[in-house]
């Protein structure tokens, strides 16, 4: 963003005159100034000249010999300009001037001879003096044409063109949270607070009188949240008029291209006040005006003649003919101001910044207006910008007069006072800023501040006075001042961070211990299709009893919110059951859930427990038995984080577990949890229609056991041969014992794994077990015949 020093001087008188020092102070206190640009930097040694005579160059057809009147007398010049004529006022560069040779590289002019003829300077094009914005028609051999009169011949060109300004290039990234700083008035306020300037006295201006006549159309805002503030009126004009030079110069200096007077005024107000505005040709609006969110696929042709396909939610204005304005980004071509425009609908709005941001991303149409709106324009700035634009309309546009009442919606808001203690301010900044300085800073930033003193704790001579402040932010800062931390930042930057003595923090540099295994456990459980839930760690005795647990073992809360939240959880199991009882009915077949939490019990240390629950709505087949599912999940998950485990018969009878389907999980010889199917009584208590099984894993006990590193194995050099064999099995026999017996039967048997279980009735004593046998040799490719012999021998040994 570009800020003009001359424009700032409309509001303040600078006590510091060096632009470099001003830029340095702004960088230190407010926002980084990337560059300080001097307008007309190439115009030193350049003056207004007048061509007195011209003749053809004897040695070049496209060159002319000229005599030019300057401040240093008449100069002889060789020139190749295509529009050169006698009597023409030109931009003349003396020897010693720095110019862009043919608009490219920089050169310093010297007195020289061109094709044998003496040349004492140069008649310049706009490209050669970096004046293309001021003279867009001057290109290549087309010279800058300053007219034919004799006025101001010999005047320094910079003064003649009014290019005496200094431009600060502000880094926008430093002010993304400061909508008030996208304006000159905002930076003027900062300059006062930094002690670079003092305010100029300004006359109070009264708002114009609005007629009682209604607009020719009704304006309706469908969603007030998306447009919290709106001001509009109708202005009648005789013609568009011509933008005054002073306004053109300021717009060009800050990076704008003058278009026409109404558009230039709105752009001028954007740079001065900080709110984008727009004026429509009111005669192009057909029917009532509605502000709402666009539907997916609606289209608009914007002022730059680009047809946009709008995303759902884009903020628009529409009439009977459709969308005519893409709010906050760019107006529509249909309703734009033209030379024939005689009735202007001027409006100013505060808009939802999130909606603007989403529309910019969806359409890829980024504009200066969108850049400001996505920061969140405060309602007060919306109102100020509207009245300033209306003032300029009435002052500059020929025959302009307001012909409708003020269409206004919403309020400017009311800031909330924030209390800040001086002690906290000092502690947070690490410096004791005097109270008078604190009050001055906030007053210069337009905050309302009231200091109050109150006795501190202590007695006798130690009973000192402690000060605090009640600070109310201005309406222009509603978007970024939320709490005392924001107030402390304001004091810190205005007081000067360089004025705060640096102090190294007193803290250890040893990195904290980090164990990623618990996060890995969570990730792996989610990969297996389990959903993590986060129930409260507080429960009641009723839920514990319902889950088959003893409430007397739970730690009681001294001041509970109620009976249902009076105990600390002794296990993650009740929370999983309660969730399943509510949500199992909403699933297709069943659910898999898990939770990781701290659990507590009387007389026992606090531990971290991982609970996993698999519940089925109905009995499907043996492969989907919850007990087998939850055991397989645990095997996969623990294996991926470096743990192998064995399942041992559970000697302890758990009241909430099925008496015949409960086992202990053992890792490295230590019991770290249990896996079990729910007791039928618990299953019925929670209205679970099918079977359910759970794992309660003591993570605190498991994490002290070192995890085995996952070591990659080389890809086998020779192919393997696999057979799938289905054998009948009795539920009373352990498949693991059978597999273990097979594993060592041959050196070529690489692996035996279960690939399927089947039984038409899951409760039947018999079932079909499908095993996959993989055979492979390390030094050669096995033949089918030798593998079949080995395979039959292994099968025969198990019968």
Question: How would you describe this protein?
Answer:
By secondary structure, this protein is an alpha+beta fold. Helix content is 24%, strand content 29%. The chain has a 7-stranded mixed beta sheet with strand order 30-33-34-38-37-36-35, sandwiched between helices. α11 (435-444) packs across α12 (484-495).
Described by strand count, sense and barrel closure, the largest sheet is: 7 strands, mixed
Query: How much is the radius of gyration in Å?
Result: 41 Å
Structural class: alpha+beta
Q: Within the largest sheet, what's the order of strands?
A: 30-33-34-38-37-36-35
Tally of contiguous helical segments? 20
Unreliable spans: 458-465
Beta fraction: 25-35%
Q: Tell me the overall shape.
A: elongated
Regarding quaternary structure, how should these chains be classified? single chain
Instruction: Give the strand tally.
Output: 41
Distance between the termini: 86 Å
Q: Considering DSSP H and I runs of 4 or more, what fraction of the residues is helical?
A: 10-25%
């Amino acid at each position: 963003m570009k800020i003009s020093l001359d424009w700032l001087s409309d509001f303040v008188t600078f006590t510091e005159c060096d632009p470099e020092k001003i830029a340095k102070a702004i960088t230190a206190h407010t926002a980084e100034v990337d560059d300080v640009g001097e307008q007309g930097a190439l115009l030193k040694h350049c003056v207004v000249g007048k061509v007195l005579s011209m003749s053809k160059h004897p040695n070049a057809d496209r060159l002319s010999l000229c005599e030019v009147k300057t401040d240093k007398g008449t100069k002889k010049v060789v020139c190749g300009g295509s529009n050169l004529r006698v009597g023409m006022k030109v931009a003349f560069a003396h020897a010693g001037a720095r110019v862009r040779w043919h608009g490219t590289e920089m050169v310093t002019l010297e007195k020289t001879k061109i094709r044998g003829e003496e040349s004492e300077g140069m008649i310049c094009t706009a490209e050669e003096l970096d004046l293309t914005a001021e003279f867009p028609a001057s290109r290549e051999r087309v010279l800058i044409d300053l007219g034919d009169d004799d006025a101001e011949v010999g005047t320094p060109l910079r003064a003649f063109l009014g290019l005496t300004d200094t431009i600060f290039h502000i880094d926008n990234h430093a002010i993304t949270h400061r909508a008030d700083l996208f304006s000159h008035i905002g930076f003027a306020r900062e300059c006062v607070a930094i002690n670079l300037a003092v305010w100029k006295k300004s006359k109070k201006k009264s708002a114009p009188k609005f007629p009682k006549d209604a607009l020719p159309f009704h304006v309706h805002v469908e969603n007030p949240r998306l447009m919290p503030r709106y001001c509009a009126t109708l202005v009648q004009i005789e013609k568009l008029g011509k933008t005054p030079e002073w306004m053109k110069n300021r717009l060009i200096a800050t990076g704008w291209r003058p278009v026409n007077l109404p558009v230039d005024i709105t752009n001028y107000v954007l740079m001065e006040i900080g709110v984008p505005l727009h004026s429509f040709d009111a005669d192009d609006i057909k029917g009532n005006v509605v502000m709402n969110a666009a539907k997916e696929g609606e289209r608009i042709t914007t002022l730059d003649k680009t047809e946009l396909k709008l995303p759902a939610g884009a903020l628009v204005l529409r009439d009977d003919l459709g969308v005519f304005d893409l709010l906050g980004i760019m107006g529509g071509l249909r309703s734009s101001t033209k030379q024939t425009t005689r009735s202007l609908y001027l409006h100013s709005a505060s808009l939802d910044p999130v909606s603007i941001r989403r529309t910019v991303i969806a359409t890829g149409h980024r504009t200066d207006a969108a850049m400001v709106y996505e920061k969140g324009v405060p309602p007060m700035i919306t109102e100020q910008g509207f009245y300033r634009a209306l003032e300029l309309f009435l002052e500059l546009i020929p025959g302009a007069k307001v012909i409708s009442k003020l269409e206004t919606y919403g309020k400017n808001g009311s800031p909330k006072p924030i209390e800040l203690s001086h002690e906290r301010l000092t502690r947070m900044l690490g410096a004791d800023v005097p109270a008078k300085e604190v009050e001055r800073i906030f007053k210069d930033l337009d905050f309302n501040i009231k200091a109050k003193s109150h006795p501190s704790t202590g007695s006798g001579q130690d009973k000192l006075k402690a000060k605090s402040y009640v600070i109310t932010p201005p309406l222009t800062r509603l978007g970024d001042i939320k709490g005392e931390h924001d107030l402390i930042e304001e004091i810190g930057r205005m007081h000067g961070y360089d004025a705060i003595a640096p102090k190294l923090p007193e803290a250890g540099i040893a990195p904290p211990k980090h164990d990623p295994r618990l996060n890995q456990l969570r990730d792996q459980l989610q990969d297996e299709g389990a959903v993590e839930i986060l129930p409260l760690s507080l429960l009641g005795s009723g839920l514990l009893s319902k889950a088959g647990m003893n409430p007397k073992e739970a730690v009681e809360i001294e001041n509970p919110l109620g009976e249902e939240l009076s105990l600390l959880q002794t296990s993650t199991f009740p929370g999983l059951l309660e969730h399943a009882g509510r949500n199992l009915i909403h699933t297709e077949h069943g659910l898999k859930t898990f939770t990781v939490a701290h659990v507590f019990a009387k007389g026992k240390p606090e531990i971290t427990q991982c609970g996993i629950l698999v519940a089925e709505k109905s009995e499907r087949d043996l492969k989907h038995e919850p007990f087998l599912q939850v055991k397989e999940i645990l095997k996969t998950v623990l294996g991926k984080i470096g743990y192998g485990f064995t399942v041992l018969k559970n000697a302890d009878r758990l009241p909430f577990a099925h008496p015949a389907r409960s086992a202990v999980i053992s890792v490295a010889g230590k019991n770290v949890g249990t896996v079990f199917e729910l007791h039928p009584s618990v299953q019925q208590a929670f209205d679970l229609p099918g079977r359910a099984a759970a794992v309660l894993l003591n993570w605190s006990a498991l994490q002290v056991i070192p995890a085995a590193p996952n070591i990659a194995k080389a890809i086998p050099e020779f192919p393997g041969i696999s057979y799938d064999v289905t054998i009948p099995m009795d539920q009373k026999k352990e498949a693991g014992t059978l597999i273990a017996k097979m594993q060592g039967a041959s050196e070529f048997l690489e692996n035996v794994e279960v690939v399927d279980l089947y039984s038409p009735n899951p409760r039947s004593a018999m079932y079909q077990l499908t095993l996959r046998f993989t055979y492979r040799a390390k030094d050669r490719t096995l033949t089918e015949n030798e593998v079949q012999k080995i395979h039959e021998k292994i099968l025969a040994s198990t019968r």
